[in-house]
Amino acid sequence: MRRIRWNAPLVVSLAGLGLIVVLGIVAPFLLEEEATALSGAARAHVSAGHWLGTDVLGRDVLARTLVATRLTLEMTLAATAIAAVAGILLGTGVWVSGRRVRELGLRLIDVMISYPALILALVIATVLGTGPVASVLAIGLGGAPAFARLTANMAASVAQRDFVTQARLMGVPPYRVLVRHLLPNISGPLLVLLSVAFANVLVALSGLSFLGVGVQAPDYDWGALLNSGLQSLYTNPAEAIGPAVAITVTGVLAGFVGDGLAAALDPRGGRAKAAAVRPTAVATPSHRAPADALVTVDGLAVVLPDGTRLVDDVSFHVMPGEVVGLVGESGSGKSLTAMSVARLLPEGLSAHAAELTLDDLDLAGPEADPKRLATEIGIVFQDPSSSFNPALRMSGQLTETLRVHQGVRGADADRRAVEALEQVRITEPARVMKQYPHELSGGMRQRAMIAAALLPGPRLIVADEPTTALDVTVQAEVLDVLKDINHRRGTSVLLISHDIGVVGTVCHRAVVMYAGRVVEELSAADLRAGRARHPYTRALLAASPRLRDSGSGERAPLATIPGRPPAPAGRPRGCGFTDRCPVAIDVVCATERPRLIDDVACHAVRQEVQAG
Ligand SMILES: Nc1ncnc2c1ncn2[C@@H]1O[C@H](COP(=O)(O)OP(=O)(O)OP(=O)(O)O)[C@@H](O)[C@H]1O
C-alpha cells in the first residue's frame, strides 16, 4: 500500500463502494419493516409511495433492494475471501513445498483453471445443496484457481531469487518464507485481482440465487430479487431494475477499483513521466559553444529530490555532422547527461541548465514541441532485446514515429522503413519487416533500432552504450553502421560509451566524464595519439586494449585504475578523482573544485602549464 499512487478512478470507485457498504449496514435497521410489510397491492407500478413498485406479495421493491445489500455484500466478501485465501495458499504453498508436492500442486492448478469458474461452482453447489452457505463455498472454491494460478506464476519468479534460496538454506520455516518473502513481493497484482474477483463473485452469487440455487426465501439477496422481478418484467419492469442496477453499479465500481489499483501500482504509470529540464537562473553561458553548434549543453545539473547532484555543471556541444563521445566509468553520469538532452530523465530526478538547446529548439523549456523532439532526436538504447515490443511485428514498430508525427502511412511508410533497413545493412529488409523482434539476432535488432531512430530524419542520434549488450564482432558492425550514417547523411551522433577505445575509433571528439562532471574534452585524434592531459583520461587510455599503445608505439602492460569512483552523495568538495589520482596535489585537489580551463579540469595540469 505504501507505493500506491492515488488516482481519480481509484478514489471515486472506493468512495462509491464505501457508500454502498454504509447503505448495506444501515438499510436493514431503517427499512427492514418496510421491506417485509405487505401493502396489499401486488406488483404495483412505480408510484410516489413505492419508487420501484411492489413485488408479488405487495412488498416495497426499493426497500427490499436496499435491505438486500447487506446479505449480498456479506456473501460476496465471504466468497471472495475464500477464493483468495484458498488460491493464495495453494499458489504459494507449492513454492515452499518439496519438488514432488510442487509438481503435483502445479498440475492441479492447471486442471482446475481449465474448468470455467461458474461451472466448477455449479458442480460444487450441486454436491453441497442449495442455500447461502453452500453457494458461498461453491463460488469461493470455484474462484480459487484464478488466485492460485496468478500466485503460483508470480511466486515462481520470486521463489527462485537469491534471498529466498538463502532463507531456505538458513532453515527459515516455510510459513515464514511465505509471509516474509513471497507475499510482500506479489501483493500488488493480488490486490488488483482481489477487486476484480469481488465483481465476478458478486455476479456469480447473484446468478446462483437467480437460478434458485442460492439464497432461499424468506431470505433474499439481489440475485433472488432479480429472479422475482424477472417474472413481472413486462408488467412492472422497475421491479427487476432495482436489483439489476445494484448488481451492475457495485460490480462496475469494484472493477474500477481494480483498474485504479493497477494504474496506481504501475511504476511507469500515473505521474511517472520523463522529467523536463528546467532552465537555471544563470543567464550568462559559462561554456563558449560555437554559434552554429547543433547541441549546446551549458551548466547542466541532474539532482535527486534530496539535493544530491548526480550530474554537476556539465557543459559541451555537438556540431552538425559531428560524432561526440561521452566517455567515463560506470556511474560517471553519461547516461543522465544524454537522457537530459533527449528529455527522457527517469521520474524523481530533476535537471536544470543555463542552456540546453538543439539548434533553435529549447530542450530546457517546458513546452518543447513533442513532435520536433520525436523527429529531430533519434535514440538508440543499450539493450536491443528490450527496445522493441515482442508482441508486434517489426513493420508497425519501425514506422510508428512516421505515422504518429509525420502522417506518413501505409505503403509509403513501409517503403521508407525498408530503405532505412537497407541503410543499416540489413539484408532482405522486406522479410524483416514481417518478422517479430525475437526472430532477429541481437545485432540485427540493434541495427533495426538504429533504422527506427533514423526514419524520421533526425538531426541528432543519441546512442546510449549501443554495443554493450552485443558480442565483439557484432559490436564492430553496429559501430560501422553508425559511422556510415554520420558520413552519408551528416547526422550528428552523441555516443555514450564506457570504452575509450570505441570513442577513439568512432568519434570526432571525446568528452570525458568522471563523478558527474566533465574532466576533459579532446579530439579523437589526440586520444588516439595518446595526447590526453587529465590523469583520469590517461588512466582510461592505459586501461584500454585498443588505444594503450597508440602514440608511443610501445607495448605497455594493460593497466587498471585502482580504487572506485565516489558515490554521488560522497563526492569530495574538490576533484572527484583525488583519491585515485597518481599526481594529486595535497589539499588543493581535495578541497578546490578544478574548473574546466583549456578543455581540462585538473589542478596538476594547470600547475604544470604555469610552471613550464
Ligand atoms: N533514477 C536514479 N535515481 C537515483 N540515482 C540514479 C538514478 N539514475 C542514475 N543514478 C545515479 O547517478 C549516477 C550517474 O548515473 P548514469 O546512469 O548517468 O551513469 P553512467 O555513466 O551512464 O553509468 P552506466 O554506464 O553504468 O550507465 C550513478 O551514480 C547512478 O547510480
UniProtKB/TrEMBL annotation:
Key word Nucleotide-binding present: yes
Membrane disposition: Multi-pass membrane protein; Peripheral membrane protein
SUPFAM superfamilies: MetI-like, P-loop containing nucleoside triphosphate hydrolases
Compartments in which it is found: Cell membrane; Membrane
Record bears the keyword Transmembrane: yes
Annotated ranges, domain ABC transmembrane type-1: 69-258
Domain ABC transporter: residue ranges: 295-540
Annotated spans, Disordered: 547-573
This protein's UniProt keywords: ATP-binding, Cell membrane, Membrane, Nucleotide-binding, Transmembrane, Transmembrane helix, Transport
Parts of the chain that traverse the membrane: 12-31, 75-96, 190-213, 240-265
Alphabetical list of Pfam families matching this protein: ABC_tran, BPD_transp_1, oligo_HPY
Similarity remark: Belongs to the binding-protein-dependent transport system permease family. Belongs to the ABC transporter superfamily.
NCBIfam families: oligo_HPY (TIGR01727)
Protein name: Dipeptide/oligopeptide/nickel ABC transporter permease/ATP-binding protein
Organism annotation: Streptomyces atroolivaceus
